[in-house]
Specification:
The complex is a heterodimer of chains A (499) and B (330). Chain A is 61% helix and 2% strand. Chain A is mainly alpha-helical and 499 residues long. Chain B has 330 residues and is mostly helical. The chains are: A mainly alpha (499), B mainly alpha (330). The interface between A and B is large, with 89 and 88 residues.
Chain lengths: 499, 330
């Protein structure tokens, strides 16, 4: 007799719900941890994950995947890609590893929430593989980043960022903690695995992998596409739970969770991935623009998925599509301007050729953001670099924890969306950010963003040096222009005349 | 952009590991100090400090009666990382597959005595539920432990529990094919919920699953329940099986016990570390004293229906107590 096929015993592996009697069911599965929303246990047993894997296959597949990723790294180590790569690309690596490695490890906790508290036995098992996957993603990315610590202190932030009060790390924590660390099991499956992983990690891991391959960084391209193969599997936990929620009259709650998670994911990506793709990646290595990647991965695929499952596109969809032409340009300008406050060196990405590309991809760029960059360039070419760095603080959104931006110059529309709640004035970067807050004010009301902390006197002395100290950024770590302003020479009168 | 005089120099490793003399291992590089929720005791999560989950982590992790000034100093004695775990377990699973195939080829199940088949139906295949409770309980420890190096051990333990469950489900289907009238694949839930043999373990695990304090959960699961379960339901049942020529069960059990022994190595190391802090021994001893009677009763109830059950029960209880004593507890 041959070995049994997985399909012959798989259902028994996930037939594990029982009726507890020594402990009441709602104590074994507290609502705030489980999130079953009154839907009875047997309904959750209909959970059917589209991607099935049993333990023995899992360890065999993952062993092979790791062997692939680690051996590519080992084989390419001698090529010293990182020492010769464009500094803009290096900044992508530093930003990515700092913002992603430790949060991926933290996602293990979100998966463990499902593994323990979901009432769907299939969900509990899949989440065990999810816990393992996220342990992998934390560990492998830390390992790959670690070999670079000898190159610059900024690489230390692959491990350090999430332990620091640097504003971007703070924003990332606020986002990840909201989506995956402080939610019940069912919410985690919708907000983390469905909204974030199905939609956005594709962008970071496949979109950026395409750019990495173009840039010649095969180690990184191979690493993040290998990670995405895990994401593609464990992201499929949200769909079956979504189906159960809708079948049991909870569509509105499901829709609200997706709408909050999607918007919050978008804002994080606008500051993290947008500048990487449209400014830091060397022009010749850009596979597509950030907007084009978003159109392909998010609008093309995610929109179809949510409508196929019976949900509506989020109410703010028109605003989201409009913002694809705007938000990340503002974020990039802000990050470059406040460059001492990040752990990587932002690449300006505004040579004449870059600007032609930006104008082509984002018609009107030169008439708006371009005008601001013109002023920065003028200050740099005329020897006034002190005017191109931070002297004041930006307005920061109480939801996204990143700057409030809009289109500058001839398209001026920068606007605060305020809200007074329990006597405190909150500021938001958009109507959907304010709406997210209003859905559950208790989750957010007592949190202080970076500016709130400054105004509360937590940051001393109350100036840039105090801010940097609070953020844990010292010389050697703080960011500066990735290309050491060499690109500015292109705008020097003599050079400009020659070209 | 800077006028500060001192510029931090690059280091050979993460800054938090840089002060040590020796070069950190791969294990340390990828496993240590990853729970950023431990940085701010007032608000583990970067949201309103008073949300439910912040209170939960403050109460059940940070304010645990088991105290240590630096839980992040914990190291897994096996120094397993994700990469090596899969290498280790893929090897084990390759072995298990070959065992399953060989015993299937020689029609092992048809040669089992009807009496032993009845024991497998009553005492083996319902363990699917029991192993699942270990899986659930271990995943709780992963989300609550105060150090990533502890969480990693419990994550691998979670996966190992799913491994045991998977073996059991596999064998349940095989046995149901050869012995269609014996209830395999049909009666397990009923037995788990009602048969006296299982009620002790079900009570123990349902209660352990709601031991919300991370360290009490660790004590209940790793120091009390697992030694009892592994002693009786894995090793004990396998010993009875050997006497009934069920070598397949014994070989599967041996492979599972290698996981169990690894779990005991890190659990002992964690107890050893906890005992460095004054007052912790009393905390652990009191918890063990509270949980042990449930486990002892469970072992007795389970073993009473096994051939040679009295001896297995005694050996299990003695070995479990010896494990705790060796770890430094009463």
């Amino acid at each position: 007799m041959p070995l049994l096929d997985r399909s012959e015993y798989y259902d028994l592996i996930r037939t594990t719900n029982w009726t507890p009697s020594y402990v009441p069911e709602d104590e074994l599965y507290p609502e705030e941890m489980s999130g079953s929303r009154g839907i009875p246990m047997e309904k959750w047993e209909t959970f059917d994950e589209p991607y099935k894997v049993a333990y023995g296959e899992y360890v065999a597949n993952q062993r092979e995947k790791d062997a692939g990723a680690y051996s590519v790294k080992a084989a390419l180590e001698r090529s010293n890609f990182v020492d010769n790569a464009d500094p803009g690309w290096i900044s992508i690596l530093k930003a990515h590893y700092g913002a992603i490695s430790v949060p991926e490890y933290a996602a293990m906790t979100g998966e463990a929430r499902m593994a323990r508290f979901s009432k769907a036995p299939g969900n509990r098992n899949m989440a065990v593989f999810g816990m393992m996957d996220e342990t992998r993603h934390g560990q492998i990315q830390l390992y790959f980043a670690h070999e670079h610590t000898r190159r610059s202190r900024q690489w230390d932030w692959a491990h350090k960022a999430m332990h620091a009060n640097e504003w971007g790390a703070l924003a990332a924590r606020h986002f990840f903690d909201d989506m995956m660390m402080t939610r019940d099991a069912i919410s985690v499956s919708l907000m983390l695995t469905f909204a974030f992983e199905t939609g956005f990690t594709n962008m970071q891991f496949l979109g950026l992998a395409a750019d990495a391959a173009q840039a010649g960084d095969h180690t990184f391209a191979n690493l993040i596409s290998s990670i995405q193969t895990d994401e593609a599997r464990h992201a499929q936990q949200g769909g079956p739970n979504l189906k159960i929620l809708i079948e049991n009259g909870k569509k509105d709650e499901a829709q609200q969770m997706i709408d909050v998670a999607f918007w919050r994911s978008w804002k994080l990506f606008s500051v993290l991935t947008g500048p990487m793709m449209d400014y830091y990646t060397p022009l010749e290595s850009r596979e597509q623009s950030f907007k084009e990647f978003m159109q392909e991965w998010i609008i093309g695929q995610f929109e179809r998925q949510i409508t196929d499952l019976g949900l509506d596109t989020p109410w703010y969809w028109d605003e989201f599509i409009r913002a694809l032409d705007e938000t990340h340009h503002g974020m990039h300008l802000g990050v470059w301007y406040w460059r001492p406050t990040v752990w990587w060196n932002p690449a300006a990405g505004v040579t004449p050729e870059d600007r032609d590309w930006l104008e082509e991809k984002y018609p009107g760029w030169n008439d708006t953001w371009g005008n601001v960059w013109d002023l920065i360039i003028e200050n740099l070419t005329e020897g006034r670099p002190e005017l191109t760095g931070p002297a004041t603080l930006p307005m920061i959104c109480n939801m996204s924890n990143i700057p409030i931006v809009g289109t500058p110059s001839n398209g001026w529309n920068v606007k605060d969306y305020p809200l007074v709640h329990n006597g405190r004035l909150y500021h938001f970067g958009s109507e959907p950010d304010r709406w997210c807050f209003e859905q559950d004010p208790e989750r957010y009301q007592g949190h202080l963003n970076f500016i709130d902390r400054f105004l509360a006197g937590w940051i001393q002395p109350p100036d840039l040096s105090g801010g940097l100290a609070y953020m844990g950024l010292a010389p050697g770590e703080i960011g500066d222009d990735a290309h050491n302003y060499e690109w500015v020479a292109r705008y020097m009168p003599a050079q400009a005349a020659a070209s | 952009m800077t006028d500060a005089p001192e510029v931090l120099k690059p280091l050979r490793t993460w800054s938090h590991l840089a002060g040590r003399r020796r070069r950190p291992t791969e294990y340390e590089v990828v496993s240590t100090n990853l729970h950023y929720r431990q940085d701010n005791p007032d608000s583990p999560w970067e949201l309103d400090p008073d949300i439910h989950m912040n209170k939960w982590y403050r109460q059940y992790c940070n304010d645990s009666p088991l105290r240590h000034e630096d839980w992040d100093a914990f190291r897994d004695p096996d120094q397993l990382v994700y990469r090596t775990y899969n290498i280790l377990q893929d090897g084990q699973e390759t072995y298990v597959r070959s065992v399953l195939e060989q015993f299937s080829d020689r029609e092992h199940d048809s040669g089992l005595s009807p009496e032993w088949v009845a024991v497998l139906a009553s005492h083996y295949t319902p363990a699917r539920y029991l192993f699942h409770t270990l899986q659930m309980a271990s995943s709780y420890l992963s989300q609550m432990a105060p150090a990533s190096t502890i969480s990693n051990c419990t994550t691998f333990q979670t996966a190992d529990s799913l491994r045991w469950l998977t073996h059991t489900a596999y064998r349940t289907v095989e046995l149901s094919r050869t012995h269609p009238g014996a209830g395999f694949g049909e009666k397990e839930r009923q037995l788990w919920e009602q048969d006296p043999a299982w009620q002790g373990f079900r009570e123990l695990m349902e209660k352990a699953l709601v031991a919300w304090d991370w360290a009490e959960a660790f004590t209940a699961v790793n120091l009390v329940a697992k030694p009892a379960i592994e002693g009786a339901v894995i090793a004990g049942l396998a010993a009875a099986g050997r006497a009934e020529d069920d070598l397949l069960l014994a070989l599967l059990a041996d492979s599972q016990m290698r996981d169990a022994e690894r779990h005991r190595r890190w659990a002992s190391a964690l107890v050893g570390m906890a005992l460095e802090t004054e007052g912790n021994k009393a905390v652990l001893d009191e918890w063990v004293a509270g949980w042990q009677p449930l486990a002892d009763n469970a072992v007795d109830a389970y073993c009473s229906g096994l051939p040679g059950g009295d001896k297995i029960a005694e050996e299990t209880k003695t070995a479990a107590a010896a494990f705790r004593t060796q770890a430094g507890l009463d």
